[in-house]
Amino acid sequence: xxxxxxxxxxxxxxxxxxxxxxxxxxxxxxxxxxxxxxxxxxxxxxxxxxxxxxxxxxxxxxxxxxxxxxxxxxxxxxxxxxxxxxxxxxxxxxxxxxxxxxxxxxxxxxxxxxxxxxxxxxxxxxxxxxxxxxxxxxxxxxxxxxxxxxxxxxxxxxxxxxxxxxxxxxxxxxxxxxxxxxxxxxxxxxxxxxxxxxxxx
Amino acid sequence: xxxxxxxxxxxxxxxxxxxxxxxxxxxxxxxxxxxxxxxxxxxxxxxxxxxxxxxxxxxxxxxxxxxxxxxxxxxxxxxxxxxxxxxxxxxxxxxxxxxxxxxxxxxxxxxxxxxxxxxxxxxxxxxxxxxxxxxxxxxxxxxxxxxxxxxxxxxxxxxxxxxxxxxxxxxxxxxxxxxxxxxxxxxxxxxxxxxxxxxxx
Amino acid sequence: xxxxxxxxxxxxxxxxxxxxxxxxxxxxxxxxxxxxxxxxxxxxxxxxxxxxxxxxxxxxxxxxxxxxxxxxxxxxxxxxxxxxxxxxxxxxxxxxxxxxxxxxxxxxxxxxxxxxxxxxxxxxxxxxxxxxxxxxxxxxxxxxxxxxxxxxxxxxxxxxxxxxxxxxxxxxxxxxxxxxxxxxxxxxxxxxxxxxxxxxx
Amino acid sequence: xxxxxxxxxxxxxxxxxxxxxxxxxxxxxxxxxxxxxxxxxxxxxxxxxxxxxxxxxxxxxxxxxxxxxxxxxxxxxxxxxxxxxxxxxxxxxxxxxxxxxxxxxxxxxxxxxxxxxxxxxxxxxxxxxxxxxxxxxxxxxxxxxxxxxxxxxxxxxxxxxxxxxxxxxxxxxxxxxxxxxxxxxxxxxxxxxxxxxxxxx
DNA sequence: TATGAATGAGGTTTCATTCAT
DNA sequence: CATGAATGAAACCTCATTCAT
Lengths: 201, 201, 201, 201
Description:
Four copies of one chain form a homotetramer.
Chain A: H1 7-27, H2 34-41, H3 45-51, H4 55-71, H5 83-100, H6 102-114, H7 116-142, H8 152-172, H9 180-195
Helix pairs in contact in A: 1-2, 1-4, 5-8, 5-9, 6-7, 7-8, 8-9
Chain A binds a DNA duplex (21 and 21 nucleotides) through residues 4-6, 8-9, 12, 33-35, 38, 43-50, 54-55.
C-alpha cells in the first residue's frame, strides 16, 4: 500500500515481509492468514494494512525481496569458445539457483496455480531464461554449430522447459533422485545433443 | 463416500460428477463451492454428501472419469523399424491428449499445486509416460542407436518433462504459439537429436 | 409408532430395539443417529419410522425392554424378624441391580438430564424404591425400633438417595472404589444407625 | 481462547460470560446457540470466537465465575464442642448454597451427564466436600464420639451423597417439598444418627 | 412392509478488513 | 504510526424426516 516514511515504519514493513516469507514457506500460500504474519512479525493486525492491501501484496513483496538471489546470473566466467561449456555454465547457474531456493520455487508454483496475477510474473521470469537461450541457439546455428532444422524459439522453449522441469523434480518435489552435478551433466548432454553441438576440440 | 445402491442413486451421483466437472472447468478448483455443484446438478446440498465427503472427493471422481480419455494409448500403428517414427508417434499421442483435455490438464496442475494428495496422482500419471520412455531409450542404447553416455532414467525424465511442459505451454497456457504438427515436429527432432538417434534409411 | 402386525414386522422392530440398545450404550444418547441404529439393525432408514416416531421413542422402548432386569425385586427370602437383615437385603438387591446394569443407569442419567420426558420415568423408578423404604421406616417407628423424631418421608428420601448415589459412584462412575459387599455393608450400617435400628438379638 | 488485552476487550468478554449464564439458565445447555449468546451480549458472532473456542469453553467460564458463590465456606461461627452443631453448620452451609444456585446446579448436573469433560469438574467440586467430611468423621471416631465400625471414606461418600442428593431434590427438581430448615434438620439428624453421634450435654 | 435416496433448514466457524483509541 | 477488538458475510456440513419405488 503505502511506503514507510519513518525509520520505525521501515522496520515494521521489513519485519512483515520477513515474517511473511517464513510463514508462506511454512504454511503455504493458501493456509497463511494475515494474523499468522502479524503474529510472526510481532506486531498488530492493523499494522499489516498500513503497508499492504492484502495477502497478494505481501507475497509480491516477498518475491521481490528474493528476486536477486534467484536471478544472480553470475555467468561471470568466460567459457572461451567451447559452446558446450557455455551451455553447461548456464544450466548449472539455473539449476543451482533452483536448488538453493527450492521452497520459494515451490511456493511460486503454488501461487501461480492459484492467482492469475502471479502467473505473469512466473512466465516472465521463465521468459528471460528462454530468450537468452533462444539467442544462444540462433548464434550457434549461424555459426554452423547447431542443427539448422530447428526452430530456435520452439527449441529454446522446449529445452528450457526441460531443464526447468528437471530442476523442479530434482530439487523441489524430489521425485528425481540425483545430485546437482549429475543433473547438470545430463541436462547439458541432452541439450548439446539436441542442438547437434559438440565440444570444441 | 458411499456407493449408490439403486439406479436412481447412480444417476444422481453421475449428475454430480458431471456438474462438478463443468463447474471446476468454469470456476477453477478453489472458487468452486459445493452449492455451485449441487445447483448445477439440480439437487439438494445434502445429496452431495450422500456420495462425497468433500470437494476433494468429487474432484477425484471427476479425474477418474476422464482418465480413460487421457490415457488412451492408441499407439496402434506400427512404425516399423524407424526409431524416430516411434518417438514421433508417442509424442503425438501425448501432445494430442493434452490438447484435447487442456482445461482438465490446467485444473489438475492447479489442484496438484494446492493439494498434496493430488500431487501423487499427477506424478503417477506422469510416471507411466516416463517409464515407457525410459524403456525405449534403453532399447535404443542396447541396439547402438542412442548415445550410451546418457543415464536412461534421467534422460527419460528430462525429455518427458520437456515434451510435457511444451504441451502445457502450447495448449494450456498458450504462451507458446504453435500448431500441433509443429510442436510434434520440434519435440521429436530435439528428442531424437538429444539421444543421438537418426532416421532409418 | 405403530405395532407390527406381521411376524416379519415383529422381527424388524425387535432388531431395531436391540440395535438401539447397543448403539446407545456405545455412543451415548446424543451421539446416536437414527442411521446408526438402522445400520446396526441391518435395515433401511425408512423402516425405523415404521415403528418409532423418533429417537425418544426407541429409547423408551429400550428402557421398557430392560425394565424387568432392573426391577426384579427378588426380595424373596424372609429375613425373619431382624430389621437390619431386611434393610441389608433391600440395599443389596438395589445395589446389585445398579451394578449389573451400570451402562443403562448411566444412559438413563444422561437422558434424564437432556430430555424432560424421561426425568419423570427416572423419578418414578426412584419413587417406588423410596416409598417402599418410607413404609419400612414407618413400620419400624411404629414398632418402636426406629427414631421417632425423623420425618419418615424425608428420611426415606435422604437414605434412598444415599444408597442410590453410592451405587452410582461405585458402579457407574467408579469414583468410589469398593466391592459390592463393602458398599452393601457400609450402606446398611449407616442406614440402620441413621434410623437408630439395631440388630435383633 | 485468548485473554483480552484491553479494557474494552475485558468488557466484551465479561458481557459474553454474563450473557451466556443467562441464556444457559433460560434455555439449558443443549438448546443454547452461540448466536443466542452473542445476541444477548449484543455483539457480533465473531466476537464470541475472539474469547472462546466453543460452547464448552464459555460454559467453563460461567462455572468459574460462580465457583466462589458456591464454595464460600463461611463456616465462620464456632460451634464450640458440640459435634452435632458442627455437622449442622456444615450441612446448612452446603444446602443453602445449593438453594441459592439451584439453576446453576441443575445446569451443571445436565452438562455433567452430557459432557465427559465436566464430569471431572463436578466430581472435584464434590470431592472437597467429601474430604472435609471424611476428616470430620475420622476425628469423631478418634475421640470416641462416632461408630468406629464405619469406614470413614465410604461413610463420608455415602453421607455427603445423601445430603447433596437431598438438596438437589429439594431445591432443584423440587420433588421433595420441604423448607431449608426442615431439610437441614433431617439431614443432620440422619447424619448424626448414622455416625452414632449425640449432642453434647 | 421394506428400501434408501433426497431434502434443506439450521447451526458452526473462519478471517479479511475496519476503525476507535 | 501502532494497536487489537469488533464485525459479519460466507461457506461448510449434519441429520431427522419424507416419500417414491
